[in-house]
Amino acid sequence: MNKENYYFTSESVSEGHPDKVCDKISDSILDEYLTRDPNSRVAIETMATTNLIIIAGEVKSSGKIKTNEIEEIARKTVKDIGYNLEGFNWEDVEIKIYIHDQSPDIAMGVDSKDDNKSEGAGDQGIMFGYACNETPELMPAPILYSHKILEVLAKKRHSGQVEGILPDSKSQITLYYEAGVPKFVDSIVISTQHVEGVTRNYLKGILQGIIGDVLPYGWFTDKTKLLINPTGNFVIGGPAGDTGLTGRKIIVDTYGGAAPHGGGAFSGKDPTKVDRSAAYIARYLAKNIVAAGISGECTIQLSYAIGISEPLSIYVKTDNTSIVDENVISDFIRENIDLTPRGIMNYLNLNKPIYSKTSAYGHFGRDPGDDGTFSWEKIDLVKTLKNELL
């Protein structure tokens, strides 16, 4: 982005949004396959609509999962999100499952014929990673705080701290930037599903408290426009109100439009799919570069071809915020980081059942966990970068 005065907007959606319900089901099934066989190849898609879930995809795994077990995973996921409503109920929703073996043509391109040779990429494509110094999490502020508002609202709903709130919700934040630096929130839009009879004033009271806790001090001003359920009632929601699909919220999943996106979705895909793993390593590299003080922001693009292990290209862009030449940075990455699918999986330890937690509130800007979740958010490359590049 140009370092000038402007407004920028990003949106988030909750775990109960129809598309996110599908993402979580797909990633929960992926996690179960990886639990049984860390080398599983999985591509699972889910669709959800009124009283119906359809699960389809391709799998290659020694950890066989029976159809009734997949159904149980889907029901538990829906239950955990909180759907026991007319039109979409975890107990009696119809579930149809169509999962078959991975195409041998794809497997041939990915499989290594030699134990010492890295697997090829599972598909062609371009992947982006991004980081900036707008927030402590090194994320663009509009998407980060859009996520946090809904995440806190969901935690309060699950804990019983608030009543009358249902799982489906959306948020949107417009920030004003002065000389490229976020200064204040111009507007916040929040739509949340609720039980019949809940008023907007009641919702406003709940959400104003959350906003006050989430946003940096001084960003919410007396001029900030706060729009709550602008259309009025939001009683019918979730898959009963709108059909959901896996992978349809790729901008919500990444940087809220503040950085490019290669186009590939993440959820339901095992880490041999570079749509997912290469986007994770690109974020890891960009974040560590910014955390090391090399640049104020960083965009990294990687490109792959199916069956070819090494990336075809590595592109680094810092928008004139770097104290190191961009070509020097890209050369360092190419020479020191194994960006083959196997190299990425080993470096970030991605062959674990760590993906269900990524399915809502963003894949980036999260805290890395002791269980291996969000390993791409670690900043353990900072010391090396400083020693080698500064």
- Percent of residues in beta strands: 15-25%
- Which spans of ≥5 residues are poorly predicted at pLDDT below 50? none
What does the main sheet amount to? 4 strands, mixed
The helix tally amounts to 10
Secondary-structure-derived class: alpha+beta
In total, how many beta strands? Answer: 13
Major β-sheet strand ordering: 1-8-9-10
User: Averaging pLDDT over every residue, what do you get?
Assistant: 94
Q: Measured on Cα atoms, how large is the radius of gyration? A: 21 Å
Helix content: 25-40%
Oligomer status: single chain
Separation, N- and C-terminal Cα atoms: 25 Å
- What letter string, H or E per element, gives the SSE order? EHEEHEEEHEHEEHEEHHEEHHH
- Based on Cα principal axes, name the global outline: flat
Description:
The protein has 390 residues and is α+β, with helices and mostly antiparallel strands. 32% of the residues lie in helices and 24% in strands. It is built from ten helices and 13 strands. The chain has helices spanning 18-36, 67-81, 104-110, 141-159, 200-214, 250-253, 274-291, 326-336, 341-348, 382-389; strands at residues 6-13, 41-49, 52-60, 84-85, 88-89, 94-101, 125-132, 165-178, 181-194, 225-228, 244-245, 297-304, 313-317. Strands 1-8-9-10 form a four-stranded mixed beta sheet. It has a four-stranded mixed beta sheet with strand order 6-3-2-11, with helices on one face. β12 and β13 form a beta hairpin. α1 (18-36) crosses α2 (67-81) and α7 (274-291) packs across α9 (341-348). The longest helix has 19 residues, at 18-36. The two termini are 25 Å apart. The mean pLDDT is 94.
